[in-house]
Amino acid sequence: VLLALTTGMRRGEILGLRWPHVDLKRRQVVLHNTKNKERRSAPLVPEVVQLLEELGKVRRLDTDLLFPSPGRDRLDKPVEIDHWFHLALTAAKIDNFRFHDLRHTAASYLAMSGATPPEIAAVLGHKTLQMVKRYAHLSNAHTEAVVERMTKKFFGNVGT
């Protein structure tokens, strides 16, 4: 979940990650199998790097997948996360939420942190800015703050 929230990666991109494509020293992963068939890299925040370092200490050596399916008969298949994801949502009392919503959340967090639409497109691997508009949703509090900053900048303390 943290990897999805901090990179905006798709579920399939995350589950398809392989150790040779992870560079913990440079804090990035290279995604080879993306939806739009274009290779891209994704930066890793220190918290994710730390978690991946811990995972690397106990990783399976019979597969290079970061998140392999348990069992020897499925060496090249990623783990099935649906059951565990739904258990976590239930425990957190979160309704009507899909794993893909983490990608939308990442886009929104990027936008609210000041990332430009082209920057968000680069992080998420979108080819068009129209897709960014579809993913990046600004909260009401954020848009109120933007309007408030603009009002103060151009009109001073109106109404006070």
Give me a quick take on this structure.
By secondary structure, the chain is mainly alpha-helical.
Question: Overview of this structure, please?
Answer:
By secondary structure, the protein is mainly alpha-helical. It contains eight helices and three strands, in the order ααβββαααααα. A three-stranded antiparallel sheet has the order 1-2-3, with no helix packed on it. A hairpin with a 4-residue loop joins strand 1 and strand 2. Helix 6 (117-124) packs across helix 7. The chain is elongated. The chain starts with a helix and ends in a 5-residue tail after the last helix.
Please give the structural blueprint.
Elements: H1 2-7, H2 11-15, E1 22-23, E2 28-31, E3 40-43, H3 46-57, H4 82-91, H5 101-112, H6 117-124, H7 129-135, H8 140-155
Antiparallel strand pairs: 1-2, 2-3
Helix pairs in contact: 6-7
Mean pLDDT comes to 84
Order of helices and strands: HHEEEHHHHHH
Spatial order of strands in the largest sheet: 1-2-3
- Tally of strands: 3
- Our estimate of the beta-strand percent is 5-15%
SS class: mainly alpha
